[in-house]
Task: inverse folding
């Protein structure tokens, strides 16, 4: 390994697959119970309604199956930890795909089709392969980790907008938390600040003096859901500090200039 280059975190592929399928199932169960009034509410994401957001989540599963149906790519161009910074350029294209999905039929039917198609495609591809993707070719294992981020973030979005409680799979939340923490460390490499997101992740970031023992002088600590919302622009740094959802100590422990990592 080249000097200074950090080893990429690894994930258990079987657990990630199970978490993706289970988290999609939780969203599907919630969507089936939404009323027309709930579906018409604003999602809080641009001009999307709750129905638009729900369609987008169905598209997440369907697009995974579509990627597995295409011929594999030769070599990966993007790793999981690089994915968050690469998503901004696709926002418009993804929004159009979600709109087309919504027009494909009633949401419960879309979810049934997308869930079955995703589960079938994953069962037919138990090993590793490289997917040909809009964002850049990725291994299936890495892409599935990114699906935990999409599904956890949007399950949280959907639940808050529609006023329902959508369960979050622990394994999906753990992978989401770790990937976004590692993306921060990639964006601002260094060892002067320690970011703690118990019980799932601890990373060091930001150039400056590195501590070698004891309590580091610059520490940020928060919970996984708050971290996910900070990293994806659902809440901002100042608000999280004011509400005591984030604890930050030390002159370098201000992440406001680095967040969000993706939107």
Result:
């Amino acid at each position: 390994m080249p000097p200074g280059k950090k080893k990429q975190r690894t994930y258990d592929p079987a657990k990630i697959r199970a978490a993706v399928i289970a988290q999609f199932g939780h969203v599907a169960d919630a969507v089936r119970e939404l009323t027309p009034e709930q579906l018409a509410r604003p999602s809080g994401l641009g001009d999307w309604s709750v129905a638009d957001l729900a369609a987008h989540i169905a598209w997440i599963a369907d697009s995974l199956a579509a990627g597995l149906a295409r011929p594999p790519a030769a070599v990966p161009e993007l790793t999981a930890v690089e994915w968050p910074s690469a998503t901004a350029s696709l926002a418009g294209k993804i929004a159009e795909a979600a709109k087309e999905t919504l027009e494909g039929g009633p949401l419960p039917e879309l979810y049934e089709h997308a869930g079955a198609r995703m589960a079938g495609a994953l069962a037919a591809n138990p090993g590793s392969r490289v997917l040909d993707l809009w964002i850049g070719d990725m291994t299936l294992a890495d892409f599935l980790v990114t699906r935990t981020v999409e599904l956890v973030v949007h399950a949280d979005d959907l639940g808050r907008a529609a006023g329902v409680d959508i369960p979050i799979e622990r394994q999906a939340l753990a992978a989401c938390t770790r990937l976004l923490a590692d993306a921060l460390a990639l964006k601002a490499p260094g060892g002067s600040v320690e970011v703690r997101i118990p019980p799932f992740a601890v990373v060091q970031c930001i150039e400056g003096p590195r501590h070698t023992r004891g309590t580091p002088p610059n520490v940020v600590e928060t919970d996984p859901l708050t971290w996910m919302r900070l990293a994806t622009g659902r809440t901002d740094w100042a608000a999280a500090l004011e509400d005591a959802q984030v604890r930050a100590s030390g002159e370098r422990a201000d992440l406001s200039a680095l967040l969000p990592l993706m939107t």
